[in-house]
């Protein structure tokens, strides 16, 4: 059973897994909601532990343990399991009405672009709008966001257009925002922005997304096709160029697919799948 998607340890496990895993204690988790703009989800209950993914404001999770400032949770959106700072969570779960559809926006203390301090809010963060004041939306949690940066519906657009907005953003393992993201985070962020479900990691994405294409037909690809290697994924920007966040450039770039494929093959990692959404 995949520990990334199922909450179980030798001492504690999700009650829904009882009978399927061994644990000293089983608990029925409770729903919580993220109140920080961005929260790191770590492998262990330690700020120095590897970041696995990130959770955004408005997302919900199931909480199984809260101990010494660390919460063990399972994210609702993609079922990922990990540890987050307890302060990132709120016990009261509120309905959200809008989400951020631009790469980044700001929460202002007043409906005035000159007011301080501001809080950065990333794409796909969700908020509850309670009123409109001029060009700004007042949030239930306090503060104001420029209304045109929010939407109550998932816009019908090409997910590649969304991914393009993250060009030159730094590569960050486990990242999902304009401050930094990784290859699978880029794909997940872009698909979530247009209302398409997407798992977190490349192996999950390869297994569940799209229809398989002939793996030896690199000349038959079109915009939006996905190219998978072991531990890596890229998005076809057009018939010959690949858009991907990668550790070679340490940022999101567009480069010729065949150049990237040759370089990655030199690391003994051949292409494992071509998929069309």
Question: What does it look like?
Answer:
- The chain has 277 residues and is mostly beta strands.
- It has three domains: 78 residues, SH3 type barrels (Roll), CATH 2.30.30.40; 54 residues, Roll (SH3 type barrels); 118 residues, endopeptidase fold (from Nostoc punctiforme) (Alpha-Beta Complex).
- It is 12% helix and 36% strand.
- The protein has four helices and 25 strands.
- The strands form eight sheets. It has a six-stranded antiparallel beta sheet with strand order 20-25-21-22-23-24, with helices on both faces. Strands 8-7-6-3-9 form a five-stranded antiparallel beta sheet, with no helix packed on it. Strands 13-10-17 form a three-stranded antiparallel beta sheet, with no helix packed on it.
- The protein starts with 12 loop residues before the first strand and ends with a strand.
The residue-averaged pLDDT reads 97
The largest sheet has its strands arranged as 20-25-21-22-23-24
* Euclidean distance between termini CA atoms: 27 Å
Number of helices: 4
């Amino acid at each position: 059973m995949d520990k990334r998607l199922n909450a179980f340890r030798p001492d504690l496990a999700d009650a829904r897994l009882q009978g399927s895993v061994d644990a000293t204690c089983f608990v029925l988790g409770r729903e919580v909601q993220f109140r920080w703009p961005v929260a790191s989800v770590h492998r262990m209950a330690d700020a120095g532990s590897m970041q696995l993914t990130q959770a955004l404001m408005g997302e919900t999770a199931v909480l199984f343990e809260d101990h010494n400032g660390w919460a063990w949770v399972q994210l609702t959106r993609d079922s990922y399991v990990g540890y987050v700072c307890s302060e990132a969570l709120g016990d009261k779960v509120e309905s959200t009405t809008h989400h951020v559809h631009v790469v980044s926006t700001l929460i202002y203390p007043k409906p005035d672009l000159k007011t301080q301090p501001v809080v950065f809010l990333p794409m796909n963060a969700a908020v509850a709008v309670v009123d409109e004041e001029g060009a700004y939306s007042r949030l239930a949690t306090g503060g104001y966001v420029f209304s045109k940066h929010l939407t109550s519906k998932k816009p019908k657009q090409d997910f590649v257009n969304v991914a393009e907005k993250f060009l030159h953003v730094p590569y960050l393992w486990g990242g999902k925002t304009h401050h930094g993201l990784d290859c699978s985070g880029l794909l997940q962020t872009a698909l979530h922005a247009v209302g398409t479900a997407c798992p977190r990691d490349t192996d999950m994405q390869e297994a569940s997304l799209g229809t398989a294409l002939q793996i030896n037909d690199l000349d038959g690809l079109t915009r939006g096709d996905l190219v998978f290697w072991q531990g890596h994924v890229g998005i076809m920007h057009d018939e010959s160029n690949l858009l991907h966040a990668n550790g070679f450039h340490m940022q999101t770039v567009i480069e010729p697919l065949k150049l990237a494929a040759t370089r990655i093959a030199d690391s003994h990692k051949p292409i494992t799948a071509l998929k069309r959404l």
